[in-house]
Amino acid sequence: MQNRSLMIFLLFLGYVLVYIDKTVIGFALLPIGREFDLAPQQLGYITGMFFLAYSLFQIPAGWLNDRFGYKKVLACSLTLLGGFALCFGLLGFGLGLLITFRFLAGIGHSGYPSSCAKSVVANFNVEQRTFAQSILLSSAGLAMTVGPLVAVYCLAHVGWRGSFSTLGLLAFVVAAFILFWVPSPPRDSATSAANKTGSYLALLKNPIVLVLFAVNFCINIPTYGLMAWLPKYLVQQRGFPLDVAGIVVAVGGLGIWISSLSTGWLVGKFMQGREPKVILYSSLLSGVCIWLVYTSNSVYTVCLFLFFGNIFMMSSFVTTFTLPMKRLPTEVMGGAIGLLNTGGTLGGFVAPIAMGYLITLTHGYDSTFIFLTLVMWVSGLLMLPLLSKSRFAARDAA
């Protein structure tokens, strides 16, 4: 039990760095845009190309994870993340270099979610997996609560270059801790997946897996769209000071943190077999809250609706992400989570670029919030076909 607790703690630290990297970029786009005189769509490409690489390498990273073991992929993922964060901060002297280093950083990120999921499945029984994984996913809430405050401070004192350089060094340290202290998987589990091509093809044909892929894609459009553009919107459109914008984003991150922990426990204990209802209602409520963030007139109401919007959004995400961990065989878990997370990262690729173009075309943010609200509702409505199944039929099908 002590070894498992240490493993979860170290993986949690790595996940915090992964999410801080994705959170800080939203604030760093402000000084980067000023320094290089970049248009909104150009800034969107800096974030979007990161998620393109993240998406393209999800499934290969999942296969490598199943083939060579989660420990090696965890360490390699954080090492690549740290190396290209350093390059972004120290060598990013133009738009082309900034896009290139963020693309390469996305390759590093791609291996982390599937290898974490694989480590949870390999070390915890079915009843414990949802809560263990939700602890790891709650790192997003911590990163988005502490990250904006740290980002504002670091941008003011060491600049965006120093911020990413520091992040890169921290990633190296956590990678070393994982390499030395996270237990290795059994040798047979690390190699048996080499002959699982048929199982992976079956995943691609499973309608439930494909629905979850589409749901994850839709959920992550508002997730990463807000992460990339909300600080800029609050400062430029609403006139909030940068430190106030950091507090608003931090309050939203608190909602993510609370939701990720509570959803894992509630769904695992009370909603087994009824996960489609959780995803449907949570997505609809989150879409309403996202729109109310835009129409709110004060800092306090913006914080309130962002807080609840993120609670419901994370409830949908955690339920979607952990469902395959309870229903699919361990030997294809890396590939399954890689496939599912590909949908999410494709959403992260589409969101900042689409929002950048919408802002440029409409000269405002109203169209972007309509877009985010509608996509969030679609993520819930995609679950309607599954509601007709019985509790046990839905469980077995997934």
Explain the overall architecture.
It is a single chain. With 398 residues, the chain is an all-alpha fold. The chain contains 18 helices and no strands. The chain has helices at 2-36, 40-56, 58-68, 70-91, 95-123, 126-137, 139-157, 159-181, 187-191, 197-205, 207-236, 242-270, 275-295, 299-327, 333-362, 366-381, 384-387, 391-397. Helix 3 (58-68) packs antiparallel against helix 15 and helix 6 (126-137) runs antiparallel to helix 14 (299-327). The longest helix has 35 residues, at 2-36. It is globular, with a radius of gyration of 20 Å. The two termini are 29 Å apart. Residues 188-195 and 390-398 have low confidence and may be disordered.
Uncertain spans:
188-195, 390-398
Class by SSE composition? mainly alpha
H/E series, N to C?
A: HHHHHHHHHHHHHHHHHH
Main beta-sheet strand count, sense and barrel state: none
**Strand coverage percent:** under 5%
Please bin the fraction of helical residues. Answer: over 70%
Mean pLDDT: 85
Large-scale geometry: globular
Question: How many extended strands?
Answer: 0
Tell me the layout of helices and strands:
Elements (H helix, E strand, L loop, with lengths): L1 H35 L3 H17 L1 H11 L1 H22 L3 H29 L2 H12 L1 H19 L1 H23 L5 H5 L5 H9 L1 H30 L5 H29 L4 H21 L3 H29 L5 H30 L3 H16 L2 H4 L3 H7 L1
